[in-house]
Amino acid sequence: LYTTGSFNLFAHKTNVDVNNRFVVYDIKELGDQLKTLGMLVILDQIWNRVTSNRLLGKRTWIVIDEAHLLFSNPFSAAFLNSLWKRARKYGGICTGITQNVSDLLENPLASKMLSNSDYIMMLNQATPDRVKLGEILNISPTQLSFVTNSSAGQGLMFAGNSIIPFIDKFPADTKLYEMMTTK
Q1: Cα–Cα distance, 54 to 60 (Å, whole number)
Q2: What global pTM score does this model have?
């Protein structure tokens, strides 16, 4: 079915140069029946790139936007958990980005990965998420105030064992701000 049948989408040579310095995989358009296979093919390709870059002495930065989507599937969640644990030893740097922290907090694997991360940046959080994150990451009520009804550019940064509150007021009347803003 997946090699010669109607789901043979991944059984062909790719038309994408996966040797580029910057490779982006987008699974948004994959249907539910192909999403699991697609995620596993992509994650396997990423792991192959990490291991081949290691042999070349290169670091690989893996950025996963909408990371909560990978935890909605048990196979990709398990693979991502393994990647998160192993990548650092192979010169890989994993970065997960999500606005749906509650989805991650409901998944035991994601919660474990979160508690074992060396760097976390938290912005404004909904009350239930904030409370759970406070428990998992051992955040004091005073520190949690930086992610309670906070303004844009305000939050908490975790680096190793340090928790650093920050307020970044980037000047809005600059060309740089104009290029970066999504407003």
Answers
A1: 8
A2: 0.75
